[in-house]
Amino acid sequence: MPRCIRRAPVHVTPNLAPLVDVVMVILIFFMLGTTFAISEGMLPTRLPTDIGRGSGPRIAIAPVVRIALRPDAGTGDCRIWVLDQPMTTGDFDGLSRFLQRRIQDGADPDGRIVIDADPVVNYQSVVSTLDACVRAGLRNIQFAVKSAAATGSTPDNSR
User: Fold this and answer.
1) Which are the contacts of 82, defined by CB distance < 8 A and separation ≥ 6?
2) 80 vs 63, 67, 119, 131, 134, CA distance in Å?
3) At the topology level of CATH, where does 65-148 sit?
4) Other CB atoms within 10 Å distance of the CB of residue 121
5) Domains of the chain, residue spans
6) CB-based contacts of 32, cutoff 8 Å, min separation 6
7) How many CB atoms sit inside 10 A of residue 134's CB?
8) C-beta of residue 115 within 8 angstroms of C-beta of residue 65
9) Do 88 and 132 meet the contact criterion of CB atoms below 8 Å apart?
10) Relative to the CA of 143, which of 22, 114, 129, 156 has its CA 20 to 30 Å away?
11) Per-residue pLDDT tens over the stretch 74-98
């Protein structure tokens, strides 16, 4: 019976010469590519910035429109003040018309509207003011809030 002769294990190693060649070619490729990218697209020019289509729009910062709701001492109704100008007491339709005229005159409908209501004004007046702003087409309506330190009150923690 013939016996198998064991051979010594053969160690297979990759040939590193082609790998080094490929790495060198890639290195040279990236080195040449980066030197061309430095000077690409550099064209020094001096263009006028104040005329033509490239001048850009002029930005006007719109002031905040503050609507103040204060109680009327005589009748107990709600007094409406817009931009520190008094309006007719409780005339929320007039407020809506006033705000619509401002938009027609060029006011930004996305400009800030701040409703500053006195704490003793009833909620219906505040909601009617909000409705008047929405009917006028205004979209950025905010409520002014006074902090507890400014009003002199403290939170009630007894509950």
Assistant:
1) 65, 66, 67, 68, 95, 98, 99
2) 19, 7, 14, 14, 16
3) Nucleotidyltransferase; domain 5 (3.30.420)
4) 20
5) 65-148
6) none
7) 13
8) no
9) no
10) 156
11) 777 888 999 888 887 778 888 999 9
- Cα–Cα dist 135/124, whole Å: 16
Q: For residue 66, give the nearest of 18, 113, 131 by alpha carbon.
A: 113
Half-sphere exposure in the Cβ direction for 103 (13 Å, CA): 18
pLDDT in tens, 18-59: 899 999 999 998 888 776 655 556 666 676 666 666 666 655
CB 126 within 8 Å of CB 67: no
Beta bridge partners of 69: 80, 117
The 8-class DSSP code of residue 84 comes to T
